[in-house]
Amino acid sequence: MTKTFLRFVQCNASGNHCLIDTLESTRYARCDDLIEYIISALVINRYSPNAKYFAPKNDHAQTAQDHLKCYFERLSIVSLPIQSPIDEVSVEKAFRFMLKGQKFVFFAHGTGLFSNSKLFKGATSDTFVEWTKANADESVEFLKSLCQKNGYEYSEACLVRHPSDIVLSRLERYFNNQKLSKISINDLDYHAAEVRNALLGIKEKLLSENIPIFKYEEIVRSAGRCLSAELCFSNAEMKQIRKDVYFSSASTGKRYKYSRKMNNKIRYALNCEIDWLGYEWTDSAHPFYFWLKAIYCNFLTIKSDIILVLRIHLFGYMKNGQFYHHKLSIPGRFLHGLLYRTTKALNKLSPLMPPLIK
Q: Which numeric CATH code is attached to 3-283?
C-alpha cells in the first residue's frame, strides 16, 4: 500500500486545530511541527551559519546549528546521538523517527515557514534574519525529498477561512488584553500582510496545480464530511469523527461580532481579492442584515462555548484545541470558572488547564 504524506497549505488561525482534531480521529497521524522548525533551521544554516536569531519555540537567540541541537533534544531520539554539525543525513533520520512508520501522515500547523516569508529577530534589536519566499520553497522541496526517500507520496491541500476572521483571531490571540480597536496600524498591517501573502500563495497553487481547497466554515458546518470527498474516509472513520469531535461554531462569522468600522479597517489592511474563494466583505451587506447577522453569530458563539465547556468539565472531552485557541465568550468564561471552582472544591480538579477567571 502506498504511504501518504499530506501537507496542508494554510495560514495560522485558519481553523487548524479543528482540522487536526478531525484527522486524528481517522487513519491519519499528525507529523510534529518540529519538522518545519528543523528544516527551516537547516536552510538558514546554509546561508547564514553564524547569524544568531530567535527561532520558533526557542527563547534564546542562537545560530541555526544551536537551534537544530535544541530541536533534536526535544525529539529525545536515543538511537540518534546529537552530532555536530547536524546535516541533511541527520535530519533525514529525525524525519523517519518522527513518522514512526505510519502509512498516512499529515502536517497542518507550524508557523507558516513552508509557505511565507518572515523576519526573525536577531540577537540585538537592530538585527534580523530574513526568511524569504525562496527559502520557503527550498524547505518544501527538501521536505518532498525526505518523503520520497522514505517511500511517501507527497501531496498538498489548502485550508482557508474568511480572511477577516483569520486576522481577528490572530489579534484576539496575540493582543488578548487589548481592545482590538486600539491596536496599532503596524500590528494590524503585519498580520494582514501574512494572511494576504498566504492567500496569494494558495491562489497560485490553485491556478497552477489545481489542488483541493477546504474551507474551515464548511468543515464545521458539515461536521467534517466535506473532507471525505478528497480524503476518502470510511464509514467507520466518519462514525469515529462524530463520536470524538465537537465542531464548535463559535469562531465562524467572527467578523460580524465587530463593528463595520473595524471590518473596514481590516479590509483596507488586507487589500486583496476574496471572491475567488466565494467570500464577501461585510461592507457589501445591508446594515440591517449586518445587525441581524451579528445577533445570530453572538448567539451561536455563546451556545457553542457553553456546550464546549460542559463537554470538557462534565464529560471529559479531550479534543480541546478549540478551547485553548479560542477566546471564550463572557458566559462561556463564567461557566468555565464556576465549574472549575466547583470541581476543585470537590477535589476533582480537571487537569486540562488553569481557570480563565481568577
A: 3.40.50
